[in-house]
């Protein structure tokens, strides 16, 4: 909630008076540092607006240590390196997962007549590794983390996340294929027979990876779900193409004004027309990315470009994002299916916020940001129980925590 206007006006008059009284001391006071700490576009929710109260003017200046005094930079709070459980959101709502501790009182999943049994579906993700220093010399690296009974170096935990991504798909959609698009120079090893590695030349540097992902998708598009590798598929997705037979591709939306479309899940119909339309659509996104949002190439640029293309051709779609219901629309000749993130791209931190728990028909869980530890912990929990619904209770109770990775 914005600060009361009278209070802000009073402070500004006070500042003006002080400027008049002591121009030699406080002339040129710059308050821009107050707003520069709060960028307009962020992945995490904005902090509460700053309320300026009557205070000495000196408190409004950025603090600078005395000359010659060396102080260490402030350290960020240490994030948890083990599971943290809290209350489960959505309790008491009949359309949400109900949990008693880590036991689900109701079950997720499609009814038997909705389960898709048609053509094979492929999942495609872009993946590469960085800082590939081997930890095989017997020494524990400084970036080592422990999850369950396993310790991982930074590169090993990246590979563990990739293999967990594949494992979830094999549980929920065992007949589907997994294709990993990667830098030809990457040293990636996946469980034999579980996925296909497809090297494609490109710039896979950290700052260019999101841009490279779109370029790589254009090179290799068939009947695919194009996804991030930090998702867990917890139910069959093939029904999308059966239930919506005329769509060329599908995107996921959320009620988020800054980033209403998430690029971590894109479905493409495997017909000639569907592939052609999807490639043309992705080329438009790539063009917007390169020309408008290249400064955000490391983060958010793909989502901003995606939203810009949709808004340019179908502005009416943005008025429907708050309803959490699937709908279709035409974007420059392509029939686009818009699916709610609450079901097809559910994110743990939002589960206790705007999504109010886990819907019973949830299909995909997306471990965005610092929740990769939770992804590995969830898979370990599923391995010990073989119950996806119970595993979702663990995710629901733990997902609001930001972990060490």
How would you describe this protein?
It is a single chain. This protein has 405 residues and is α/β, with parallel strands linked by helices. It has two domains: 1-33 and 47-69, no CATH class; 99-398, Spore Coat Polysaccharide Biosynthesis Protein SpsA, Chain A (Alpha-Beta Complex). The protein is built from twelve helices and 14 strands. An eight-stranded mixed β-sheet has the order 7-6-3-8-11-10-13-12. A two-stranded antiparallel sheet has the order 1-2. A two-stranded antiparallel sheet has the order 4-5. It is globular. It starts with a helix and ends in a 7-residue tail after the last helix. The model is unreliable at 1-66 and 132-137 (pLDDT under 50).
Output the strand order for the largest sheet: 7-6-3-8-11-10-13-12
Number of helical runs? 12
Question: Which oligomeric form is depicted?
Answer: single chain
Low-confidence segments, given as residue ranges, are: 1-66, 132-137
- The CATH architecture of the largest domain can be given as Alpha-Beta Complex
> How does the major sheet shape up?
8 strands, mixed
User: What number of structural domains do the residues give?
Assistant: 2
Q: Going by CATH, what is the homologous superfamily of the largest domain?
A: Spore Coat Polysaccharide Biosynthesis Protein SpsA, Chain A
Amino- and carboxy-terminal Cα gap: 32 Å
Helix content: 25-40%
Radius of gyration: 24 Å
Number-wise, the strands total 14
β-sheet strand percentage: 5-15%
The CATH topology label of the largest domain is Spore Coat Polysaccharide Biosynthesis Protein SpsA, Chain A
> By helix and strand content, what is the structural category?
alpha/beta
What's the SSE pattern? HHHEEEEEHEEHEEHEEHHEEHHEHH
């Amino acid at each position: 909630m914005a600060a009361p206007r009278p209070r802000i006006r009073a402070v500004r008059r006070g500042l003006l008076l002080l400027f008049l009284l002591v121009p030699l001391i406080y002339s040129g006071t710059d308050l821009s540092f107050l707003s520069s700490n709060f960028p307009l576009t962020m992945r995490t929710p904005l902090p509460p607006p700053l309320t300026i109260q009557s205070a000495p003017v000196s408190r409004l200046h950025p603090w600078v240590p005395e000359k010659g005094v060396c102080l260490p930079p402030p350290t960020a709070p240490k994030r948890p390196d083990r599971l943290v459980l809290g209350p489960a959101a959505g309790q008491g709502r009949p359309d949400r997962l109900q949990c008693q501790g880590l036991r689900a009182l109701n079950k997720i999943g499609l009814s038997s007549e909705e389960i898709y049994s048609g053509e094979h579906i492929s999942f495609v993700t872009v993946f590469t590794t960085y800082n590939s220093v081997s930890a095989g010399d017997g020494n524990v690296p400084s970036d080592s983390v422990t999850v369950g009974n396993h310790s991982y170096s930074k590169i090993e935990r990246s590979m563990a996340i990739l293999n967990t991504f594949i494992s979830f798909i094999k549980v929920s959609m065992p007949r589907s294929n997994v294709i990993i698009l990667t830098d030809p120079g990457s040293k990636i090893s996946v469980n034999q027979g579980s996925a296909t590695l497809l090297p494609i030349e490109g710039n896979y540097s950290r700052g260019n990876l999101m841009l490279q992902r779109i370029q790589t998708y254009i090179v290799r598009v068939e009947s695919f779900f194009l996804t991030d590798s930090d998702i867990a598929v917890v139910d069959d997705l093939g029904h999308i193409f059966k239930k919506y037979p005329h769509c060329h591709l599908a995107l996921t939306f959320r009620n988020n004004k800054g980033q209403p479309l998430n690029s971590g899940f894109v479905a493409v119909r495997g017909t000639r027309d569907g592939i052609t339309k999807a490639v043309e659509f992705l080329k438009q996104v790539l063009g917007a990315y390169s020309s408008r949002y290249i400064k955000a190439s490391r983060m958010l640029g793909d989502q901003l470009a995606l939203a810009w293309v949709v808004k340019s051709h179908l502005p009416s779609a943005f008025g429907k994002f708050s309803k959490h219901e699937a709908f279709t629309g035409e974007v420059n000749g392509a029939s686009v299916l818009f699916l709610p993130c609450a079901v097809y791209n559910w994110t743990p931190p939002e589960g206790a916020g705007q999504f109010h728990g886990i819907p019973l028909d949830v299909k995909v869980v997306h471990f965005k940001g610092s929740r990769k530890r939770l992804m590995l912990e969830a898979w370990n929990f599923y391995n010990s129980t073989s119950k996806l619904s119970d595993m979702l209770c663990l995710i629901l109770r733990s997902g609001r925590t930001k972990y060490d990775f």
